[in-house]
Write a structure and sequence with these properties.
Number of helices: 10
Radius of gyration: 17 Å
Number of strands: 6
CATH class of the largest domain: Alpha Beta
Number of domains: 2
Shape: globular
Largest sheet: 6 strands, parallel
CATH architecture of the largest domain: 3-Layer(aba) Sandwich
Strand order of the largest sheet: 3-2-1-4-5-6
CATH superfamily of the largest domain: HAD superfamily/HAD-like
Helix content: 40-55%
Order of helices and strands: EHHHHHEHEHEHEHEH
Length: 219
């Protein structure tokens, strides 16, 4: 195993409630309705896809860009006010990985500013060699672009990397990129992640270990 690629929301931090509430605040601001299943269907996708395809709010690129940025601003305002919690055991897990020489990198559909806010709050930025964020890719998950770019940051072959993901779209992206896919059922049922192609799934971040990751490369 040459590298571990971490999705962000639902893998490193517990942010789903803040993201869902920020969509609700944005909808009120712009006078739009939210489909009842929008959050489930949009999880793991970029705002540039969510707004036109899942919410059906607009096809105007300027509106999509402005609303997407505003949504993330609302998220960060709440994140500053309330704090953005780390998932249980994630700091210890990152410590064990880096202690064994495993390079860690982030591949996420969120904005870089969101990562930086959590880095400031928790001091975990040094665990990662870098990050590929929403503004760094043309094609969002389930396209593997975000994870393939992450492997280049650490100079690793995709087949020697494992992706840690909580969304079906992210699992599909990892598999399409030739990587091992480890699902965390923090935001979606385990069955959904297995159906998407995960090589293994755990209930939560507290179940992660370097032994588990290494076992994916032994079969």
């Amino acid at each position: 195993m040459a590298g571990a690629i971490f999705d962000w929301d639902g893998v490193v931090i517990d942010s789903s409630s803040l993201h869902e509430e920020s969509w609700e605040l944005l909808a009120r601001e712009v006078g739009k309705n939210l489909p009842s299943d929008h959050f489930k269907n949009g999880f793991g996708k970029r705002n540039a896809v969510i707004i036109p395809e899942i919410l059906g709010w607009s096809d105007d690129p300027s509106e999509i860009d402005a609303w997407g940025k505003r949504k993330e601003e609302l998220y960060r305002v709440m994140g500053v006010e309330r704090g953005i919690p780390l998932l249980p055991g994630i700091r210890e897990f990152l410590t064990s990985l880096t202690g064994e020489g495993v390079q860690c990198v982030i591949g996420t559909s969120t904005e870089r500013a969101n990562l930086e806010l959590a880095f400031e709050q928790h001091g975990i930025g040094d665990f990662f060699e870098g990050a590929v964020c929403s503004e760094d890719v043309t094609n969002g998950k389930p396209d593997p672009e975000v994870f393939l770019k992450a492997t280049r940051i650490i100079g690793a072959n995709p087949t020697e990397c494992v992706v840690l993901e909580d969304s079906a779209h992210g699992i599909q992206a990892a598999v399409r990129g030739g990587m091992k896919a480890l699902g965390l059922a923090t935001t979606r049922p385990m069955a959904d992640l297995f159906e998407a192609g995960a090589h293994t799934v755990v209930e939560g971040s507290q179940d992660l270990s370097i032994v588990l990751l290494e076992s994916l490369f032994q079969s």
